[in-house]
């Protein structure tokens, strides 16, 4: 379900809770690209995003001998967006579930 549709039923207080939690837990795009620049060959940016399996594979192959690391710069931005959307969805579901148990 789209996050906007999920958020339309939330109160202003719940929306501020969601935004606060998202700000605390989300990853920074600048940091991710800096990690790619300095540690791309060993997958530092993948570890930062929580993709440990991909990070280990990049470490063991030195970023696919550099090719994987170069190609990855075009895909990690979308991966960050996907992770952030999933994180926001999880937070919304927790806020909705928490308020239902209180009511």
TrEMBL record:
Pfam families: TM2
GO cellular component, one term: membrane
Residue ranges of every copy of the TM2 domain listed in the record: 26-74
Transmembrane segments: 30-48, 54-76
Predominant location category: membrane
Domain of life the protein comes from: Bacteria
Entry keywords, A to Z: Glycoprotein, Membrane, Signal, Transmembrane, Transmembrane helix
Keyword flag Oxidoreductase: no
Cell cycle in keyword set: no
Membrane-topology descriptor: Multi-pass membrane protein
Subcellular location: Membrane
Matches recorded under PANTHER family: BETA-AMYLOID BINDING PROTEIN-RELATED, TM2 DOMAIN-CONTAINING PROTEIN 3
Name of the molecule in the record: Membrane protein
Organism: Terribacillus saccharophilus
